[in-house]
Design a protein that fits this description.
Length: 407
């Protein structure tokens, strides 16, 4: 004998499929709203991923930075005397400088075969990074064999993630074809000596790497006395959070001015700070956050209209069910089940379409947009919540279904 639950008529499902055209339109509307949510979350996630793309490759357990730090490409500077002081702490193995800022870039001579290439001498903003050649702090295998190429202060390595408007020879990406070409960096003619792949971040569409002496000449600072960041490597086995607290307290004891001169963060804290800054304190992050909210509202409105129209057209049937003894709670549950079916069946195509759009976006724009398990589960939860709220609003029309109206 079948259990009672299996002997019940699947009223919600039958309501949904009784009019195939309306069902398809309804599911398309739900899927469209969910695709919007997926894409807005994907772009928002890309903002977070891109915000830390450089930090993810820097060697260091702790970061020393200026109290006036704005973001990675506008870090201000700190005195290297503070770095030397931190290096004398028992927990510290080494402190290395890292130099970075936005600088003016003038394109190489234009390739006439590139129909969309920018004019000769076009100026762009480029991310300029500087390292000490004997202790590079960028963790990239391909760089270890290329750093000798920038021993000359008028040579640079360019990031292959740099966009086409910076003037590559092949009109798309910088490659070996650009080796030996001349560009202008920070007002000085500089030779492109090679290339590497790191990523450019959000503040600029291009990045180059030079040595510390070359950085000082173009930035107008004495790199022997000041640095953009200090990267602290702790002795093996130490906990970064505990060591950070110990170093901060020790610095205060050594010199009370340290609180106003330098900040100490763990690398994870710095990444979270950078990510939060771009997501919550800049227009680009807030735009995508608002996009998620608006997409949710659009989806809820679509589902509400679908369910409200369906309930209104079936008021006589619901009134008949009431006359037969079915409770208002049962009828309300039927509408909610119908909303949940829309949430589930609309989610599947939205998920598949979003996977395809993520790949297309990443391939065409270079923006690191990809699906995550957390996002997939989160959007499914939003889908259920969106349709549940719409269903609760549509239930109000059920109260108009009275048996007396049948006579």
């Amino acid at each position: 004998m079948l259990l009672p639950v299996f002997r019940r008529t699947p009223l919600a499902m039958l309501n949904l499929i009784s009019q195939p055209t309306r069902a398809i339109v309804s599911l398309t509307g739900v899927a469209f709203a969910l695709v919007l949510i997926f894409m807005q979350l994907g772009f928002r996630g890309a903002v977070g991923n891109t915000a830390t793309i450089v930090y993810n490759r820097l060697r260091g357990d702790l970061v020393l930075r200026s109290p006036d730090y704005v973001h990675l490409y506008e870090p201000r500077t700190i005195e290297r005397a503070w770095m030397n002081l931190v290096a004398s702490h028992p927990d510290v193995q080494a402190v290395d400088p890292f130099f970075i800022m936005l600088q003016k870039w003038q394109n190489p001579i234009r390739n006439e075969l590139c129909s969309s290439a920018p004019p000769d001498g076009s100026f762009r903003t480029v991310g300029m990074m500087g390292v000490q050649l004997d202790r590079s702090v960028i963790d990239l295998d391909e760089l270890s064999d290329k750093l000798y190429l920038i021993k000359d202060p008028d040579s640079l390595l360019i990031d292959r993630a740099t966009r086409a408007e910076y003037g590559p020879e092949n009109c798309k990406r910088f490659s070996d074809d650009d080796n030996g070409k001349l560009a202008e960096l920070g007002g000085r003619t500089t030779k492109i000596a090679g290339h590497f792949k790191l990523g450019t971040g959000l503040a600029t569409n291009g990045a180059v790497l030079i040595n510390d002496v070359a950085f000082g000449r173009r930035a107008g600072i004495d790199v022997r006395l000041r640095s953009s960041l200090g990267l602290v490597q702790l002795r093996p086995g130490l906990n970064p959070t505990q060591s950070k607290k110990a170093i901060v307290q020790w610095l205060r004891q050594q010199d009370p001015r340290s609180e106003l001169a330098v900040q100490v963060l763990t690398m994870d804290e710095q990444k979270n700070w950078e990510r939060n800054r771009w997501l919550n304190e800049t227009p680009i992050g807030m735009i995508f956050t608002m996009g998620v909210v608006l997409s949710f509202i659009i989806g809820a409105a679509i589902v509400y209209m679908v369910l409200a129209t369906d309930v209104a057209s079936r008021l006589p049937e619901y009134a008949t069910l009431k006359a037969m003894g079915y409770s208002p709670l049962y009828l309300a549950h039927t509408v909610l089940r119908q909303a949940w079916l829309l949430a589930v069946f609309g989610y599947v195509p939205a998920f598949l379409v979003s996977l395809l759009l993520y790949q297309i976006t990443s391939g065409m724009s270079g923006i690191p947009t990809f699906m995550t398990t957390q996002r997939a589960i989160g959007v499914f939860g939003l889908s259920l919540l969106m349709c549940t709220l719409a269903g609760l609003l549509a239930i109000r029309k059920l109260w108009k279904a009275e048996p007396a109206s049948l006579f």
